[in-house]
Design a protein that fits this description.
mainly alpha; TVP23-like; 73% helix; globular; transmembrane; transmembrane helix
Length: 203
């Protein structure tokens, strides 16, 4: 009887799970799956094997899968951003950014967890690197170096992409306010209505 009385309260007052709040639950899972797997293999791998080469290969595979997933899938679906590099004929590299339409709102759960995962993972690997130096396990720094390189590539790419998107949205909003859309824009419309009212009161 006690359980029956508690169930309605939990259904009425309880919060839905994170996956139910997410607009892309499968993508959200894979946003964390490979990076968590790499960290777990690195940290707990020696519990199951003494073969460093095997641990290194498994960690690098998970890190590469994570890099590709975050760069090409989860960033586009969870926060509406995408970045990539193009090599020019003169040998230089240029950054290209893609962002969502600002009129399309983001899911706050997806956005918060995307940025949390993006920044927390390299912080964990940086801590692992410090531990390696302090304990003189310099061989393990090879895995940490690969992890930091791939994680920071996405951190820098998405940070710059987000900055670029905000600048584009601000520029577009300002142009609309100053007359870039509709019949003269918002400011133009206000000015024309004001002039019309002044003319009507005079004549």
């Amino acid at each position: 009887m006690g359980m029956n009385t508690l169930e309605p309260d939990l259904e009425a007052g309880g919060q839905p799970s994170i996956l139910k709040q997410s607009s892309h639950p499968v993508c959200l899972i894979f946003h964390f799956l490979f990076r968590v797997a790499a960290i777990c293999i690195y940290f707990f791998g020696t519990w199951f094997t003494d073969n460093f080469v095997l641990i290194f290969v498994l960690c690098v595979l998970m890190l590469v899968f994570d890099f590709w997933t975050v760069k090409n899938v989860s960033g586009r679906l969870l926060v509406g951003l995408r970045w990539w590099n193009e090599n020019r004929e003169d040998g230089t590299t240029t950054w290209l950014f893609e962002s969502r339409d600002p009129s399309r709102p983001l899911n706050p759960v997806d956005s918060r967890l995307f940025w949390t995962g993006l920044y927390v993972a390299p912080a964990i690997w940086f801590a692992f690197g410090i531990i390696c130096v302090l304990t003189f396990k310099l061989t393990w720094l090879l895995i940490v170096a690969v992890a930091l390189a791939l994680n920071f590539a996405n951190v820098i790419g998405y940070t710059q992409c987000d900055k670029d998107a905000k600048q584009k949205w601000a520029t577009g909003f300002a142009s609309n306010m100053l007359g870039g859309s509709g019949a003269g824009g918002l400011m133009g419309g206000l000015m024309s209505r004001g002039i019309t009212r002044m003319a009507g009161s005079i004549f």
